[in-house]
Design goal:
about 40 residues; alpha+beta; 1 helix; flat; HATPase_dom; transferase; kinase activity; kinase
Length: about 40
Amino acid sequence: SGLGLTIAKHIVEKHGGSINLDSTKKKTHFCISLPKCSV
């Protein structure tokens, strides 16, 4: 339904990150990037 991706995108963006995708006929790759933080 795509609802999970919408929720994930919202959470990632709230943490200052982004979600990108690369799609071909046979597969789709999702890349989630988040900023580093101090521990």
